[in-house]
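ARCHIVE RECORD
Type: protein–small molecule complex
Small molecule: nicotinamide-adenine-dinucleotide
Source of inputs: curated submission
Record status: active
Notes field left blank by submitter.
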Amino acid sequence: MYQIDLSGKHALVSGVANKRSLAWAIAQELAAAGAQIHLSYAGERIKGNVEKLAAEIPGTEMYECDVTRDESLETCFQQVKEKTERLDFFVHSIAFAQKEDLEGKFFDTSRDGFHLALDVSAYSLLAMTRHIVPMMPEGGSIVSMSYIAAQRAVPAYNVMGTAKAGLEQMTRQLAWELGPEGIRVNCISAGPVNTLSARGISGFTSILKHYEERAPLRRNVTQKEVGTSGLFLLTDLSGGVTGQTLYVDAGYSVVL
Ligand SMILES: NC(=O)c1ccc[n+]([C@@H]2O[C@H](COP(=O)([O-])OP(=O)(O)OC[C@H]3O[C@@H](n4cnc5c(N)ncnc54)[C@H](O)[C@@H]3O)[C@@H](O)[C@H]2O)c1
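STRUCTURE (tokenized, with ligand):
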């Protein structure tokens, strides 16, 4: 029987806000395979939620990390290093844009709104990877979360599409840079899943319905399916894969 055994491996998973978070789905799969889980969370406001979830996986460590602040990143990684010298897996599952920039005209996006969305949702992958790489001396695997708006025009997705296009380019560029270190970098382009962030996209419910009608599987993907795809991309099961965007979208992306 084929088994994935990640015991002794360490995974840092960012972006758990609540039980619906895609990051939580990936963390659960990693934990089920035996990995030690380290969660980074955005700030005090969601700490209670994250604590409750962390308690479901005994031994899980937690660190506050607001990716817009370098001091917060520094402190977070100092704390991670106190718990483990080595990381094997890193999940980047972080995005944010102001509400007004996810509705209305794309060309009305403010300079500040543009900077904030790109800073939190794209630059943070570089800022965190900078801390991660020295902790992966024997190689490792990094996964981030994208959406089809990186490649296509999607109503209301606006500046978040710009951020996701950046994230996919960064995936390729980092894969090139880190390949010689044995570090693979990929992203998942997930179909819509009802999470806190997704509910911020105007018309999200009609997007879910549209996928159900159009996707080859005639349904939406589940949070768990995103989790198991994360497990696949993080582990040796996908050993030869790097720089890729894997669509986990019930096939929607292949249909005209
Ligand atoms: N849910 C979907 O339909 C869907 C589809 C494709 C891609 N994604 C992507 O998946 C990722 C996770 O989103 P989700 O849907 O699980 O929603 P979510 O709201 O559960 O996760 C978003 C996370 O970003 C974190 N975050 C925001 N600002 C931050 C900051 N300054 N510092 C640190 N963390 C910060 C939030 O705390 C939250 O944990 C995002 O990149 C999102 O764009 C989601």
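CURATOR ANNOTATION: The helical segments are 22-32, 44-54, 70-83, 111-132, 158-178, 204-214, 223-234.
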